[in-house]
Every structure is written in C-alpha cells, then in structure tokens.
C-alpha cells in the first residue's frame, strides 16, 4: 500500500564556494575518548558532504596528531566524497600526547605543499580540532603558517586553552576561534564553518575598511593594495613601494623611484641603452672631426688616435710610421734580418737555405736535386757535389760508377775445391755431392740417408749424389725400391691347416674359424659347446649353436622376451573360450569359472545366479527376495521390517520416524508428509514453514543515482537494496540478483551472473559509487529489457520458467519518456515494481508498475522510511513467486520411499529392470512410466523432473501415493 505524506521541498545544493584546499588537523591524543573521536569523525564527514568535492573544485586532506603526526590522506589523494568518508571511517586514534605545534608545522611544510596536491592561487584553509593545551609552542609556527597564506580555524573542546586557540587562529578571532563544552556540540561549529565557507560576499555586505581593494574568500575577506603599494600591518591601509631603496631594480647606474616602479638614468659621459636599464659611453669619434690618420678611439668625455698594427703614433698624435722590428736586436737571424709590416723575416747568404725555424741557415744539398749521376753515393760540398763508392767497391775513372773488388785474385784463400769472391771478401765452395766442413775450407761427401727423406721402410745406404734401400731378413724389396713385404710361407702350399693358415715372420701357424677351437695337433678344429660353460641361465633347456647358445621351453610354455625364462601359455587370451563369466588358463588348455553368487551350468561355460530363497523362505515373515550372494526379507505395504530383518510390523510413520515436521506430520499408508498452519507456506525442505517460500527468481534493481538523491540518501538506497537481498535465497539455482544505476547515463554495477551469495552481493552494493547528474528512467528501462535480462548477463532461459522481476527506485520525474519501455518490459514477462521517494511522480510510478498496480507501486516522502517499503515489498514478491528450477535430489534422501520402493521392486521383477539395493538406487520401470505417460506424471505433482530423452526415470523429492500405486 502506498504511503501518503507531504513531499518536502528540494534539498539545498552543495556549497559552491569555488576552489578551496581544506585540511583538517585533528587531535588524536589519549585524552580524546573513543565516543568523542567518533563525534569528530562525523563532524568532518558532515562538512565534506556539503562541499563540492573534486580535483578542480574543493580538495580535502586530513592530518591526525598526538606525540607524532600522521598524514591520513593528502589533498590529491581522493576526488570523490565516498572515498574520503571511507578513509575517515578507517582512522585509528594515535592515543599519545598533544604536539599541536608539530602538526601545524607539518601542515605548512607538507600537507599544503604542491607535492601533496596544494594549488597556487587557491585559498588554503586549515581546521584544527583539539581538546587540550598543546605540549609544545604554537604561536611562532602558527604565525609562520598564516604568513605562508594558510587561513586557520581553531576549534577547542572541553579542556582546550583559549589563549592557545587565539595564538593558532587567523584574525579576526571572533570568526576563527570556537570553544565548545563537549564534542557533542562540535556540530555547531560545523554549521557556522559551512556558512562562512559557502556564505555571502563580505566585501559587498560589510564595512571592510580596505584602502584600495577588498577580496572575498570562503566565509571571510582580506585587503589588497594596488600595484606598487604594500599592505600595512593593520591589514587595510597601503604604503607606496620604493623599489630603488629596497634594491629591487636592475639599473646599471642610476635608479629613479616611483610608486611600485622605477626608471633608470646614466652618469655624465654615458647615454641610456634601448633596454632602458644599462648605459654606454658616448662615442665622440662618431662626430667625424677627429683628423686621425688610422683609427679614432672614443674615451670618456673625448677621443684618442690609434695606429693600425705594425705602426707607431707620431709626435703629432695623429699620423703613423711603420715599425722597424729588426732595429730591436731580438730577431735571432743567423745571417741577415729584413723588416716588414708588423714583423720581420730572416735571409741566408748564397749557397745556403733558410731552415724551418725561419732563423737559422743550412748549406744547400745539391745531391738532393737528383741530377748527380753517382752510381753509389753523392756527397754535397759548398756550391756543388762529389761521387763516392760503397765499402768493397772502387771508383772508376769516370768519377761516377763503381766496381766490386775481387779478393780471390789475391791468392790467399786456401780453399780445397773452389774460391768465390763476394762483397768485402770471399768464401769457399765444394763440388757437387760434397758439403763444406766447419773449417769453411775443406769438403766431405754428403750422407743423403741422414736427411731423413729417403722413404726406406727398413734400411738406407748412402752413395755419391744419392742413396738406395735394403730390407731386413725375412722380407723382400718391393717394386717401388723403398717398401718391404714379409715372405708368405702359407703360399708355398705345405701348411696342412684344416681352417686357416696364418703366415708369421720366418714361418706360419694354423687358426680356427669363429665358434671353433684348435685341436692338440695344431692343425684340425672342433665346434665350441657354449652350454657346457654353465652360464646360460636358461630356465628349461640350453641348446648350443655356432658362436653361442639358445634357450628352449618345455611343451605348454613359451619363451619370454628375455630369451631365457618361460611362461605357461594363456589359452584364455586366444578369445575362443566362450566362458560367460571368467576363463581360467591351465597347462595345455583352459576351464570356465563363475562369479561369486553364481553356479556353473552343465555346458561348463554359462552361469546361473544362485536362488537362495529356493532353499526355503529363511523365516521371512512376509516375502523372501533373492539377491546376488544372498537374500533379504520384505514386508507388505503399511508394514516395517524389524531389526531381526525377518519379522514385519504395521506402523504409523509419524510416530516411529524422526519426520522433522515443524508444525504437523500427517501419516499415509507406508508414507507421511508435513503440513503448515493457515497463512504459512511449506518451504522447499518439505519440513519447515514460513510466511514466504524461499524465492527462486531473476531480480534486477534499477536505482536512481541522479544529483537530486544526494550522497547521504544514496547510502540509504544501498541499505534498502541490501534489505531486499536479505529476504532472498541467493544461489546459482535459486535467486539471482543484478544491479543497474542510472542518471544521465546507465551503468551496470553487476549482472545477474556475477555473484552467487548474499554476502558477495551486499558487499558489492556498498562499494557502488554515486553517479549524480540527470534522471533518464526510460533509458534505464530500455537497458534492463535489452541487456540485464539477457542470457549473456546471466538471466536463465525462458523455458526454465524462472520469474523475472524488475524493481525501479527513483526520487523524481524522468527527463525522458518511460511509456514505451515500461510497456515492453511487461510484455517481455518481467514483473515490474516501482518505488518512489520525495519528488517522484506518481503517474510515472504507476506506468512502470505491473498489474495490479496497488501491489506493485510504493511511495514515501522521506528516504528514512524506505526500510518499511522493503518489508511490504517482500510480502508482495512472495505472493507472486514460483517454484523456479527444480533441483534434482538424491532419491535415497526422501523419507516417503518405503511403499514406492516395495512397488518398484515388484515392477522391476515383472519387467526385467535391474535393481542395485546395496546402492539405494531405485528405478521406476520403463513399462510403468510409459503406461502412465509423461503428461499424467506431470499432472500428479509439479516436483518431478522427467528425463526428456526417454521419459523413463523419475527422481523423487516427495513421491505421492497416487504415483506409487499407479506403478
């Protein structure tokens, strides 16, 4: 039912004070009690919620201090209110001393630095909150902080000292100092601070007293002066700035002051340059009346004449004469000095040339001209040259060519064979085939064998001008006259060897082929018996062969891969045994064997299960049922088998079993079921009762994140979503939940397929960030129909008959049309709920809601009342929900199987169905299922899952008696 209350006016917009850098400096000393620290936390959060937070708007930082300083977060750390609130809520008090001065210094040097996010030309505001007297000095550091441009608000609580607060705060103190009795009253300062930060322009609304300019800042103002003036200590009047007296000018010579400015001038004899700052001396030469022969040089208040380099000024101080550098006597010339302009040079006398040092002289080398015609050497002399021969030569009569001296002609050579003249002497030479001895005169015949290149295989014999080869005894020289070959005595044909004859030096001997040994006569051979060595390792028999042996197995065995051991032949592996159960190999054949519980038939191949009941009924009260390896007793319908496993007793299952019914158990023949009181519904476990069955739905929530909702109310919306989630049975096969936020655009926070537990969903909801901006509800409905309920986003196929529920939460009129997509949502089978708060428009909510509208439409004027809507909404969703997907459960867990099992057993016997009683797996026989037909089975109870392939197997949740009797 809709709530009818007066709708409030729209909330005030956030403070639009312009860009501000705000730093909270909070006291975390041990004197601040836990509940007081929580109040301080709320105080900061309330102020932040009223500010326009952003990197281009208001930036906020938090510093906590006690005996040390902790930077909680800097001005550049966060750009969103939610991030700051989360960080503030995670602050842990330092619980030590109260070093307020240390905290102010940290704020000035670090918190308000550009590295931490402080901006130039933006007001810097610090709010100090403390509950006691500082343990360090604050006056000097606070003054330095104010001088650096920080506006300081000092908030004292309870035990705080007013003198210390005034020493810290900016003037005027009535606007910047606050003292309250307890932390509970600190919110009063918060309201005043917001008014000052977001309030009126005090320059326009107050008598500010500024002499020149008044400039507003959030909640305050300050005076400025015109360019060229400085603000006096009274903070209002101005004094002209004398930049010349303060040395704040760049004039080279003379500075002439004016208010806030200056001009430059020059001394006598100088003129001001174009930069109006520097000076240059007056150029008198430029006047053209200097009469200088070479150069005119301006000097202070006049000019001088100057000569070019290499000239000196004459006595008239105007004309010039070239300088005679040779006359200075420092020319260092070896022969003669010649003066030239600006210098001198040296000259040499005839027959000499000037060296590279340009001062000394060297006689001319006529030989270097290359026209001397000397065969050996040319020797220069003054004004000419002579020819000279090398050692060992004599100059011919032409005075140019040379002839080598013949020393052998002197007759004192003493050579045994020949004398050969050479340069500067002679040497002795021997005839062919001889070599010169160490005395360099006598000769000896050459030993060619000693050179080592004779290539003789055995022996080398030297002769004149050569050598020849000879062989050792038992060898003959080959045709190459160098190598030798041993004489082959076997080739003579008188060896008498049975197998092979091997020649050796000066004789021969006999050898046998591989696998044979030589007999005592040293000529005949016998094959070796390897088996006789006793190392054959054969398991059965050893058979000697040439060069070895082979192993052989006895009859009925085959040789293994190791070629030594034997294995009995497995006749069963040939696949022609025809045994029904097992084949057992024996020596030279096989036999058939049956599994436990079976006996071998007369054909010695097939098997029959032993019928233990045929031996008697084994004292069973009702029926004996044979099974593999035994039997069991079974009771008639309505009876229970006792502990002895044989006797049967009629029973009321509600009295004899732990049925677990929360309200009441109702017995039926061979079964039971649970019921609930009026107004309650039996839950899926078949035992407990509740006002609402655990829902199995696909639920998508569309929540309005427009600017009009406001951050604090958006937190209530998230709590409302989690309150709805708390009522649901969230699981992959139960209820799935998706969340979409919209404003001027649409954003899927998480699809239906993302989370599978309540805890995951609730955590994700609380992490959703507020979008702000417009209200495009129609666009959000379109997104929900086209995307949120798609199988790609996790919605289950329509064939599974899972209800699809959409819930729209909004606080105002949509900025686009909702009619088209609200209609399409309901046509798509989506059950639509509409929840409105505050300025939400009733006709739009009714347009969105499904029929009957009164059960699908909710409204309240206040966000704080939406929790009651969540409760009312739950009751309506419960009334519309369905069973959802049927979970296939283990038939053994069903309490109503007794009679069903009995009848199924009989049906299995009748139609040959296999039954595995020891695994508690009960199959409804195909015959019984086909005789009823799938439609009949479906109509009996909605909690059956029929196999779509064969419609043969029914798995139980709660089997009705009608189906059991039908089988």
TrEMBL record:
<feature type="domain" description="VWFA">
    <location>
        <begin position="21"/>
        <end position="197"/>
    </location>
</feature>
<feature type="domain" description="VWFA">
    <location>
        <begin position="698"/>
        <end position="873"/>
    </location>
</feature>
<dbReference type="GO" id="GO:0048731">
    <property type="term" value="P:system development"/>
</dbReference>
<dbReference type="Pfam" id="PF12662">
    <property type="entry name" value="cEGF"/>
</dbReference>
<dbReference type="Pfam" id="PF14670">
    <property type="entry name" value="FXa_inhibition"/>
</dbReference>
<keyword id="KW-0175">Coiled coil</keyword>
<dbReference type="Pfam" id="PF12661">
    <property type="entry name" value="hEGF"/>
</dbReference>
<dbReference type="InterPro" id="IPR000742">
    <property type="entry name" value="EGF"/>
</dbReference>
<keyword id="KW-0964">Secreted</keyword>
<keyword id="KW-0245">EGF-like domain</keyword>
<keyword id="KW-0325">Glycoprotein</keyword>
<protein>
    <recommendedName>
        <fullName>VWFA domain-containing protein</fullName>
    </recommendedName>
</protein>
<dbReference type="InterPro" id="IPR026823">
    <property type="entry name" value="cEGF"/>
</dbReference>
<dbReference type="InterPro" id="IPR013032">
    <property type="entry name" value="EGF-like_CS"/>
</dbReference>
<dbReference type="InterPro" id="IPR001881">
    <property type="entry name" value="EGF-like_Ca-bd_dom"/>
</dbReference>
<dbReference type="GO" id="GO:0005509">
    <property type="term" value="F:calcium ion binding"/>
</dbReference>
<dbReference type="InterPro" id="IPR036465">
    <property type="entry name" value="vWFA_dom_sf"/>
</dbReference>
<keyword id="KW-0677">Repeat</keyword>
<dbReference type="InterPro" id="IPR002035">
    <property type="entry name" value="VWF_A"/>
</dbReference>
<dbReference type="InterPro" id="IPR009030">
    <property type="entry name" value="Growth_fac_rcpt_cys_sf"/>
</dbReference>
<dbReference type="InterPro" id="IPR050525">
    <property type="entry name" value="ECM_Assembly_Org"/>
</dbReference>
<keyword id="KW-1015">Disulfide bond</keyword>
<dbReference type="Pfam" id="PF07645">
    <property type="entry name" value="EGF_CA"/>
</dbReference>
<dbReference type="GO" id="GO:0005576">
    <property type="term" value="C:extracellular region"/>
</dbReference>
<dbReference type="Pfam" id="PF00092">
    <property type="entry name" value="VWA"/>
</dbReference>
<keyword id="KW-0732">Signal</keyword>
<dbReference type="InterPro" id="IPR049883">
    <property type="entry name" value="NOTCH1_EGF-like"/>
</dbReference>
